[in-house]
Amino acid sequence: MIRPVLAELQKRFAVNAAEAGDQDLHRRALLGVAMVSAETGHLNEVLDKCERHVAARPEIELLAVRRRIFGPED
């Protein structure tokens, strides 16, 4: 169930997406989405679209979202 969602995110939004944890839990998954952009605004726009896309899937209940943005100083 998760692989098609990851493939859609990668194809539609040109991001890297992977199952990043909770593989041992039944009916739960931790998805990671990553991208690189020179503009924070563009980065937030694409990540917002990814979040809405996943949340709109009827078979998925989005429990939490955590976002970390790294800059050149990190």
Describe the structure.
Strands 1-2 form a two-stranded antiparallel ribbon. Helices cover 38% and strands 15% of the residues. A hairpin with an 8-residue loop joins strand 1 and strand 2. The protein is globular. It has helices at 2-13, 40-55, and strands spanning 16-21, 30-34. The protein has 74 residues and is an alpha+beta fold. The chain has one domain (2-55). This is YlxP-like protein. It holds the Pfam family DUF503. It comes from Nocardia asteroides NBRC 15531.
List the helices and strands and how they pair.
Elements: H1 2-13, E1 16-21, E2 30-34, H2 40-55
Antiparallel strand pairs: 1-2
Protein name: YlxP-like protein
Short overview:
The protein is of the alpha+beta class.
From the alpha carbons, calculate the radius of gyration and give it in angstroms.
13 Å
Would you identify the regions where 5 or more consecutive residues have pLDDT less than 50?
Answer: none
Choose one word for the global shape.
globular
Number of domains: 1
> Whole-number average pLDDT?
90
H/E element order:
HEEH
Helical content band? 25-40%
Overall number of strands: 2
How is the biggest beta sheet arranged?
2 strands, antiparallel
Provide the β-strand percentage band: 5-15%
Quickly count the helices: 2
Q: SS-based structural class? A: alpha+beta
N-to-C terminal Cα separation, in Å? 34 Å
Biggest sheet: strand arrangement: 1-2
Organism: Nocardia asteroides NBRC 15531
Protein name: YlxP-like protein
InterPro entries: DUF503, TT1725-like_sf
